Amino acid sequence: MKRFFNLYFILGLALFAVACTEDLLDQVPTTQLSSDLFWKTTDDAIFAVNGVYDANRTTFDRDYYFDGGGEFVHTRGTSNNQGVFNPGAIGSNTNFGFLWGDCYRTINRANYVLGNIGALRASLKTPSDLALMDRLVAETRFLRAINYFRLIDLWGDVPYFTSKLNGNTEAYSLIRTPRAVVKDSILADLAYAATVLPETYTGDNLGRASKLAAWAFSGKVRLFWACWMKNEGKTADAQAHYTAAAADFKKIIDKNIPLFRNGEPGPVDNPNYWHLFQYFNEYDPEIIFSVQFGGPLLAQGEEMQRDFGTRNTGNGQVWVAPTFRLANRYQLLSTGDFAPSLVLSKNTTQLNSATNPKSYAGRDYRMRATILWDEQKMLRLSTDGLTVGDSMPFRFGSRDGVTFINYDGAPAGYIFRKWIRQTGGIGRSDGPQDMYMMRLPDVWLMYAEAINETNGGPTSELFTLLNRIRRRGNLPALNQAKFAAKADFFKAIEQERIVELVGEGHRFFDIRRWKKAEEIWPSPGGQVLYDSQGTRVRDEFVNAPERDYQRYYLFQIPPGEIEVNSKIIQNTPWL
């Protein structure tokens, strides 16, 4: 998508200018170009759909902040000043409330485009032009679908509409549509997209929504719905959606798409998993759908270097950092099971001390590819992209008078290596790295979850899939006898989701759909997060009332929406 991304700004300024306030109404395009001037050629339609991709980027470009709402990542704030996120306060409008407007901006833009493509299509004659219009419609419906999915996931029942809103009067008359109805409409959009879109693209079309992406998100919507229904005791509905989700995911599995570098772990000091999260590998077949960026020097870059990196790696600010809890999840190569829990201590020679580098030896290769602990260095690449060069080490806390990586106040005792660029000449807010929304391991793990539920336990196929994911960490295969029961195999799925998908914004949504907040942070004590030396970092649901848990599962509707439209009723936990 780097190849067509530079078209977005022209379209954003001319075709989709909007007012500056944040409520739903002001996402309505108010100054569209007249159809007498635009919507005359297929190029006009392509430009318009690119504008929908641009709006979608705004919705999902920083999903990794959601990891701060889980237990394994600390988000000390956000580089875009949109809130401070921790598990006990994440649902407030002052944190992720802006996503309400972002989703509806994309949806209204998509509806506007769909209406005009329909009119343009009637004037076209050639089969190739008609096929292009069908594909653009399918891409736009896909983007509309995933934005509605984000809305019902966070807010439940939401206003639903499929045509461009015509001014304030119509927008202020919207009511909340039951999320079951919205879910069915989402699946209809994704089903259409799956029938029309190609499986892969080449050349200038790389990065666009594909048939595989439509299947993957259809399966994800069904899986999430199944989890929600299971939590409500609606067993039949849940089982039906688990079955349908598995069928969607199986379509992708049957394509025999390989993991990056065939899932091989690579060298211990330079794991392949790290390379997957470098921009020069973002079109690998493992990446099913991404939020696309067009940096550098196009004013369309991403902020991952700023959010994950340090002052010594692209002048980053370490807004997002791992914790000792994440470090404890990386298993031993020798046993394939967990190591003894780290001891939070300043003693750098104590056995299992979190500040003792030897405590991390012999672990899942994905650990080295993902985080830095005391005395670890960033991976510096030579021109061949394979050789590890030298760099200054990370050390939590100032000591010994030696220069170490400046981690800019990140309090947890660790910093990320995943997503950190090691190429020069690219600003911290001007990067080209795509943010992965759907990868092949995510599909495999969701499929395993669905089959484990419907089958009452794992099958040999599921062990094969999880072992392929574990292979990239150089871990041994799962002990099938140990994980033969449904509940035990679910723990294996959860474990792989934690270490494989960290930093990609999935854990928070997993906790919510599995309704695990009360298990992770039991009342009344909750949990306290400490850094690697044992210093208190933050409280998580400590002495929290039941309402705080309810607010974790169902977000606050932005009050501004309710102020202008009394038909939109606030979610109960926030009344």
Automatic annotation (TrEMBL):
InterPro entries in the record: SusD-like_N, SusD_RagB_dom, TPR-like_helical_dom_sf
Keywords, in A-Z order: Cell outer membrane, Membrane, Signal
Domain (SusD-like N-terminal): residue spans on this chain: 63-223
SUPFAM superfamilies attached to this UniProt entry: TPR-like (SSF48452)
Main location: membrane
Localization: Cell outer membrane
Signal peptide: 1-19
Coiled coil: none
GO cellular component entries: cell outer membrane
One Pfam family linked to the record: SusD_RagB
Domain RagB/SusD per the UniProt entry, residue ranges: 285-574
Family: Belongs to the SusD family.
UniProt-recorded name of the protein: RagB/SusD family nutrient uptake outer membrane protein
Species this chain originates from: Spirosoma endbachense
